[in-house]
Structure to design on (290 residues):
């Protein structure tokens, strides 16, 4: 199974790559670009649209791969204090792009800490119950029930606000239908089911007026666009130029960085929505002369 990179566990963290990707910086960069952006956008799946164009999505993928390469060679980066400071600043800017973009996706409202916690608590409680029912179904070789209960937590999180609580409630209803089968060996009590329903109600209570969901989105978009401009400037005018020092002394480092700086068309499935999928595959070599 393909490994994913979780941005909230530290941008640029290393995971196992296919052997061919390890041997080929160009192929490795393409692989990392795909999985890094897919992971960073996992919480926005199910939304109709994102305010970012294909160009921005592709560029975000390039940013993430660049950060991974720089973190891989952190000892070399540390030999140049100016580069180390820029890498830290660049990483923070890219992190902020992801966080802010998640908050202001069209059709959604920024999630408060209370809303996030309510959603997480509800999902954890419901999935724990459904997991027991799935285990029971597997033990009975009940294929139909196994399919109904094959529900990872991401499925709940990916639902739209208005649908999430209803979906969770249907899962709890299913568990309750089989409570007699689960009460003994699987220890599913009335209190467990009541707690799950209470958490669903708590989650639904955190949902605000949908008429206010676009509040602050315009300013948020402007802020994200400014972050993209800052990230571009740091790369093109500072980091790219400092990386030239490693071209002869550390060719492997330089080659991986150069491969990571290619903007790949990872947003091709959005083609036609925003910018027609343009700007994919545009090379951005560090020396700007190729």
């Amino acid at each position: 199974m393909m490994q994913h990179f979780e941005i909230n566990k530290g941008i640029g963290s290393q995971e196992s790559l296919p052997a061919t990707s390890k041997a080929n910086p160009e192929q490795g960069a393409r692989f990392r670009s795909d999985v890094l952006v897919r992971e960073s956008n996992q919480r926005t799946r199910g939304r109709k649209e994102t305010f970012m164009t294909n160009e921005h999505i592709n560029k975000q993928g390039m940013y993430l791969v660049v950060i991974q390469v720089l973190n891989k060679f952190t000892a070399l980066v540390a030999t140049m204090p100016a580069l180390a400071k820029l890498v830290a600043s660049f990483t923070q800017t890219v992190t902020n792009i992801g966080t802010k973009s998640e908050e202001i996706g069209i059709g959604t409202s920024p999630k408060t800490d209370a809303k996030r916690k309510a959603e997480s608590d509800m999902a954890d409680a419901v999935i724990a119950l459904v997991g027991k029912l799935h285990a029971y179904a597997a033990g009975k070789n009940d294929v139909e029930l196994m399919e109904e209960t094959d529900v990872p937590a991401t499925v709940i999180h990916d639902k739209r606000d208005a649908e999430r609580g209803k979906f969770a409630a249907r899962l709890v209803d299913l568990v309750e239908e089989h409570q007699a089968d689960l009460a003994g060996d699987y220890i599913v009590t009335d209190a467990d089911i009541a707690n799950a329903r209470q958490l669903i109600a708590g989650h639904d209570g955190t949902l605000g007026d949908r008429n206010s969901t676009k509040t602050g989105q315009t300013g948020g978009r402007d802020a994200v666009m400014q972050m993209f401009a800052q990230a571009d400037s740091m790369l093109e005018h500072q980091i790219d130029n400092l990386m030239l020092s490693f071209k002869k002394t550390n060719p492997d480092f330089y080659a991986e960085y150069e491969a990571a700086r290619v903007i790949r068309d990872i947003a091709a499935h959005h083609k036609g929505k925003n910018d027609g999928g343009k700007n994919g595959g545009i090379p951005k070599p560090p020396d700007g002369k190729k």
